[in-house]
Amino acid sequence: MFYGAVVWDPWLIVAQIVCLQCLYYLTLGFFLSFLVGTRVSRLTLVYFFDFATINTSTVTGCCVIASLLPSSFAGAGYMLYLIERAKKRLDFSATLYIIHLFICVIYGGWPSSITWWVVNGTGFAVMTLLGEYLSMRRKFMEIPISRYRSSKKFLHMLNKLPNKNFISEMPLCFISFSSFHSVAVPLGSK
């Protein structure tokens, strides 16, 4: 298939969305367990989905904020391996945060806190921009080519040729005087 040719595969897209969402919540749970779990008696889904827990007036609220932002950085890294094209980073980030908003509305009501919107908007921007940056950086990386291996393979192929003295039997060889001029000289002439 040619590069740029898009095949519509809805099952792949759904699987990528589910994987990205699950990895995001696993990472969020990891950070919440260290930052918030040490401060509260019981870590519940309230800290994942209730907008009231995201505030700057309490230390626990700041710890929730400090858990959400590294999860966005990790989400950008997950997108690097799950989603193949940089153009799709915005779509997948938006889908993740729209699903998160939907779950938050179901769990705790419409988020009326400006802090919730700022933190999640920042997380969305970080995930999208860092994901695109990492993707473009990976796209422009040099492709490693092992010269030793390829030259060894070439010599092995030359040894398998039936006539091993084919270079001395060539009628012409090219002698290069500079990068712009080359002259054909018959072998054996002075």
From TrEMBL:
<feature type="transmembrane region" description="Helical">
    <location>
        <begin position="57"/>
        <end position="83"/>
    </location>
</feature>
<keyword id="KW-1133">Transmembrane helix</keyword>
<dbReference type="Pfam" id="PF09801">
    <property type="entry name" value="SYS1"/>
</dbReference>
<feature type="transmembrane region" description="Helical">
    <location>
        <begin position="12"/>
        <end position="37"/>
    </location>
</feature>
<keyword id="KW-0472">Membrane</keyword>
<keyword id="KW-0813">Transport</keyword>
<protein>
    <recommendedName>
        <fullName>Protein SYS1 homolog</fullName>
    </recommendedName>
</protein>
<comment type="similarity">
    <text>Belongs to the SYS1 family.</text>
</comment>
<feature type="transmembrane region" description="Helical">
    <location>
        <begin position="114"/>
        <end position="134"/>
    </location>
</feature>
<keyword id="KW-0653">Protein transport</keyword>
<dbReference type="InterPro" id="IPR019185">
    <property type="entry name" value="Integral_membrane_SYS1-rel"/>
</dbReference>
<keyword id="KW-0333">Golgi apparatus</keyword>
<feature type="transmembrane region" description="Helical">
    <location>
        <begin position="90"/>
        <end position="108"/>
    </location>
</feature>
<keyword id="KW-0812">Transmembrane</keyword>
